[in-house]
Amino acid sequence: MVKRKSHKGDYCPSARSLDVIGDWWSLLIVRDAFDGLTRFSEFQRSLGIAKNILASRLRTLTERGILETVPAADSARQQYRLTRMGRDLFPVMVALRQFGERHLFAPGEKHSHLVERDTGKAVRLDIRTEDGRPISPDEAVIVKVPETDEA
């Protein structure tokens, strides 16, 4: 089996973020955690994932600070809760959702919707500059860390 390359020391914030998140199962677990799921059995039922894979992903997400375990109020079991770091993934999840809505559904095809709990109004993610102006990909550039000749 090929060992996955770590991006922990990479200069790119995207690479480091993906190093923490890991894979698509992990993002689906995070999605379900935002949806209120907290117990191993709830994640397993929702995702239809093998128990050994789910246990591994939950352990990794906990070790990397995305989830934490807390005692369940109604039993001796543990439940999983998003940490502050995990909750900071909310815009990522909204962006993935918007991408899917825009490109992966036929016009009029039914799909779930993300809405504000109190008003029922649709949630939308906009990318803006520091001073609040909307910005498109053509107007943005990544300023990379200069490469050095360390030998």
Keywords:
mainly alpha; two-stranded antiparallel ribbon; 6 helices; Arc Repressor Mutant, subunit A
Structure description:
Helix content is 39%, strand content 7%. With 151 residues, it is mostly helical. The chain has a single domain (13-139), classed as Orthogonal Bundle (Arc Repressor Mutant, subunit A). It has a two-stranded antiparallel ribbon with strand order 1-2. 9% of the residues are buried.
Strands of the widest sheet, in order across it, are 1-2
The helix-strand sequence is: HHHHEEHH
CATH homologous superfamily identity: Winged helix-like DNA-binding domain superfamily/Winged helix DNA-binding domain
Count of runs of 4 or more consecutive helical residues: 6
* Biggest β-sheet description: 2 strands, antiparallel
Number of domains: 1
Query: Which stretches are low in confidence, meaning pLDDT under 50 for 5 or more residues running?
Result: none
- Oligomerization category of the chains in this entry: single chain
> How big a fraction of the residues is strand?
5-15%
Shape: globular
**Helix share of residues?**
25-40%
Cα Rg: 19 Å
CATH topology: Arc Repressor Mutant, subunit A
Going by CATH, the architecture would be Orthogonal Bundle
Total strand segments: 2
Mean pLDDT, all residues: 90
Structural class: mainly alpha
CATH classification class? Mainly Alpha
Gap from first CA to last CA: 31 Å
